[in-house]
Amino acid sequence: MPLASYALGMMEASVYAPEVFARGLPSTLQSSAVGIVPTGSIADAAVPLLSLQGIGLSFGGVVALADIDLSVLSGEIRAIIGPNGAGKSSLINVISGVYRPGRGHVQLDGISYTQVPTQRLAHLGVARTFQNLALFKGLSVLDNVASGLAYKVRSNFAGQVLGIGRSRGERRDSLSRADQILEFLDLTAVRDRLAGTLPYGLQKRVELARALVAEPRLLLLDEPMAGMTASEKSEMAGFVRAARDRFATTVVLIEHDVGVVMGLSDRIAVLDYGRKIADATPDEVRNDQRVIDAYLGVASDNEDGAGI
Amino acid sequence: MTAITDEFSSAPVLPKWIAPVLLLAFAYGVVPLIGSSYLFEAILLPFLALSLAGVGLNILTGYAGQVSLGSAAFMAAGAFAAYNFYLRVEGLPLIGSIVLAGIVAAAIGIVFGLPSLRLKGFYLAVSTLAAQFFVQWALTKFSWFSNDSASGVIDAPKLLISGFAFDGAVGRYLFALTVVSILTFLAYRLVSSQTGRNFIAIRDNETAARIIGIPVLKTKLLAFAISSFIIGVAGVIWAFAYLRTVEPDGFDLDRSFQILFIIIIGGLASIRGAFFGAALIVVFPLALSRLGGFLLGDVFDSGVLDMSQRIVLGALIILFLILEPDGLVALWDRVRRRLLFAWQST
Ligand SMILES: Nc1ncnc2c1ncn2[C@@H]1O[C@H](COP(=O)(O)OP(=O)(O)OP(=O)(O)O)[C@@H](O)[C@H]1O
Ligand SMILES: [Mg+2]
Fold first, then answer.
1. Which of residues 173-202 of A touch B (CB under 8 A)?
2. How high is the ipTM of this complex?
3. Residues within 8 A of B (CB atoms), A 99-118 only
4. pLDDT tens across B16-30, in order?
5. pTM for this one?
6. Can you tell me the distance from the alpha carbon of B79 to that of B338, in angstroms, rounded to the nearest whole number?
7. The CATH number of the domain where A79 resides is what?
8. Domain that holds residue A272
9. What is the DSSP string of B258-293?
């Protein structure tokens, strides 16, 4: 990844989203891009947190993804857009190990996988949300969010039943962290409700909370604003941005609402029929003729979450 | 969009432990004094055994979402294992045999739970039938399990715990009550623990559970093990305290379905639900047969009465589930809330 174009891209993104710039966001970017790398060399600084190489995936005859390359740098909000059935969700499923790609591999934090180990995903610092709600309906909002820390639990069931060993401390810790996240996402009022009884928009937000509570380094969001009203969308966009700022989380975001995407993301990859047809800053993508033909030109059809 | 008030938060709530403690005080202090032997033999003992089996199955099916039709097999495994441990291991106290029997049932549960790692729902239910048929077959086929008794029916040992004999109907009732209370308390602790929440997470969305790092395979097998342990001990109570005989026949597929009905009618994923459901399943047929015998005993013979009872019971269950799909527990909670509300507003 040539750093020059990346830096340029960042500046342009900032022009596009001045509020991001004003909030001092690029400093997060710089600190995570430069600070983590021990050598301090600028070339190394651009080693991506996540990169996909030549990913191909098909279901029977349907080619969902064809030869996709993608790199995601530490601290950026990376959008993936495209028409319905373009393969966006499939891509997230490949990154999170739900699907095993037919070709290519996923490189996460310098380690290459042919299939990302889903069961170890949380340990690797990756969290995600789902396009279709995937909350635990029978648990309270608080317990849903606390479950995002389940990967850390080391007490066994006997200790938990008898209330001995590390089980009490673990429970206390995860509840207090869950409460902090609920506060952060303005969900404290519904803390004790069963997740399944909440309105759709709030359930989406609880799912974000469950993913965020582990303070992941990489957060994959599959249409977190689908089906929301305009005001709910901008509220959610604010939360995504705030989450990135607060936890220095890198975000991969799928979203149909072009307005939201342009304002929120640093770089955008555009998929169409499983191929990547563009990958650039919001500004460049907006003016790309292929993107306009394939997607933006029909954007009005895709508004309001037609792709749910 | 966050302006949502919790409609129940204003209700005055008594501490959670009050109801169970009062109930236990009544069950230990009052029932033994006033109960007839019919009450113990025909109602309370089967009720306690089936409630415990319901608690066990609810952990697996209600909480962890794994459907099982093998409950009676685990009851049988428990009953026969306890009998054989008691018979063959010199000096092993009864409690030791019961715990070991639970462990045997748990081990069998794990083996027959292995398909759950690949199968779901209906397919899993069918594969748990294998447990049902296999265990019943093995117990009938190998007379060693019944100590080579000619009839295959054997008397259960006396209920002796550290020198104290739980004799007679009341004694066996107190024994069953104690075992059921202890295991129910532990089950309650379990379902409100991290492991219990992991069960629910796997039930509600297995992919999401795996993604957030819940060890799905391990947790599923744990659910099978714990559930089978409890159902196995329920089998011991059924054979040792209720029937007083150990025989494979009573642990057939009908019994497995009965336990499944208990948790569905009582309320899935509810410990109380198992008790509500068992009460209904035990008391309702008795009441119906009394009523039927009283009203129509002169007109029809007992075979017809028995048949029509089953039809009425089935119809009532279907009707009830249509009206209250969340079971007796939901009904109970609603009635209680109404009463509380009425009481408050006076
Ligand atoms: N599990 C699956 N089995 C079969 N086909 C699948 C599966 N998942 C995705 N596909 C197919 O792969 C293609 C890409 O689907 P995908 O869900 O990734 O699209 P998407 O970009 O997320 O679309 P949307 O905007 O509607 O969510 C589609 O043709 C879809 O039918
Ligand atoms: Mg999708």
1. 186-187, 189-190, 192-193, 198-199, 201-202
2. 0.86
3. 118
4. 888 899 999 999 999
5. 0.87
6. 43
7. 3.40.50.300
8. 2-37+75-98+117-296
9. HHHHHHHHH-TT-HHHHHHHHHHHHHHHHHHHHHHH
